[in-house]
Amino acid sequence: MSPRKAYQEELDKLSSRLEKMAGMTKKAIAMAVESFERHDMEMVEKVRELDERTYGNLVKAEKEIIRIIALHTPVAGDLRFIATSLKITTDFDRIVRYATDIADIAERTSEMLHFKASVSTPHMAEMAVKMVDLAVDSFTKKDLSKTKEVFELEQKVDSLYDEIFREVLTYMMEDSQKITMGMNYQFVARYLERIADHACNIAERVVYMETGERVRM
Amino acid sequence: MHTAGCDILSDKKYKMETNELNAWFGSFQAIKNVSMKIRGNLTTAIIGPSGCGKSTLIRCLNRMHEVTPKARAKGRVLLDGEDIYSRDVDPVEIRRKVGMVFQKPNPFPTMSVFDNVAFGLRANGIRDEEFITKQVERSLRQAALWKEVEDNLDGCGAGISGGQQQRLCIARALAIEPEVVLMDEPCSALDPIATSKIEDLIFDLKEHYTVIIVTHNMQQAARVADYTAFMYLGELIEYSKTKRIFENPEEELTEKYITGRFG
């Protein structure tokens, strides 16, 4: 295979791997929150498996990136793509780690009762998944309009986090029996908020990849 | 054509400038309306595919282009604000001020290392041998060759390695104290180690000189040049800080060329 074809194939292969990681990331968030809501231990194990697989793909992606840099010396748009890929693989890994943390909480609280209708947490999870979806879409389709949506949703996720924090605090102050579960709700919300931040990171890096400009939201 | 990244300075900061420069070989137009300002004490690289006019451009900068039969140039080329194509300008004096190093090392084969470097001085009428000796040493030191030849200055200029010959040619150009050094693919005939030494030398040279280098090796341009100009089919397509060209070029054609997607 000619060097140019080989180079393009390697870039395409990396792109596919990142899409795969993105898919795992979204699945992990959704499954983690569901495992917490429903006390589903099977789901907890699936999240942990996804964590392992995501990490495996992170390692492979890094190797592919290093090889491309060493052999092909990418410049301009290709270089920005490579730099962005290197960064967002870390974002994906962190997101799945947070999902695993939520699954760990699901396991710890398996015998505890939910005292909220659990409306806000799934809603926050939905928004976090949507943000990751949009951020990844903007990366694969090089569509900057989707990054704007990500930044807008980030504000909403932050507001929702504040809301959950205040609400759960009220419950804990009213009834000390609810403190343990209340703290776990706080942790879950915190992890979802961090997941949303990572989706934002991905969107910021896509802006850099496309325009060469660095933005901070 | 994009010149983003080229700060607008007072003209005094520009060592050389071309203004609507055109050049022909007979009826074939090799350079088309090239206007660019070259900053002093920096390295500027000119890149582009074969036949794009980059060698022709630098040969216009020291009036070597017109030496080729049926070659002509039109437009202005300024050195410190003065047009080098003015009727009252001596082209030989221009070639002293704007020296050149060629792709294939070309030391004078019948002369010693010393005499190779001294040649330009003697050809300019300098007879003071003490001065010549000092200049030869100074030039060989500037060309990072002194330590390798100081014990054998009488050795044949063509008897040293390719990389050393090229540094000898650079020393020869530096001996007559030019202001600008033009280099036309100076490393393309050299091995990687010799290339690396020349590139280090180019980095050091810009402290005292303005360096303009033509190269087909984009990674070399990325390593050594402060500014990079991309030419295609005789036109200047983009000219900007090297960092800008290689990280985020303005022109699609530039992006295609440097990412290897030309053709």
Describe the overall structure.
The complex is a heterodimer of chains A (217) and B (263). Helices cover 86% and strands 0% of the residues of chain A. With 217 residues, chain A is mainly α. Chain A has one domain: Methane Monooxygenase Hydroxylase, Chain G, domain 1 (Up-down Bundle), CATH 1.20.58. Chain B is an alpha/beta fold. Chain B has helices at 54-61, 91-97, 113-123, 129-142, 146-149, 162-175, 192-205, 218-224, 242-247, 252-258, and strands at residues 14-25, 28-39, 43-47, 71-79, 82-83, 98-101, 180-184, 210-214, 227-232, 235-241. Classes of the chains: A mainly alpha (217), B alpha/beta (263). The A-B interface holds A 4, 7, 73-80, 211-212 and B 218-219, 222, 245-249, 254-255, 258-261.
Name the structural class of chain B. alpha/beta
Number of strands of chain B: 10
Which parts of chain B are unreliable, with pLDDT below 50 for 5 consecutive residues or more?
A: 4-9
Helix content of chain B: 25-40%
Largest sheet of chain A: none
CATH 2nd-level architecture of chain A: Up-down Bundle
How many helices of chain B in DSSP terms? 10
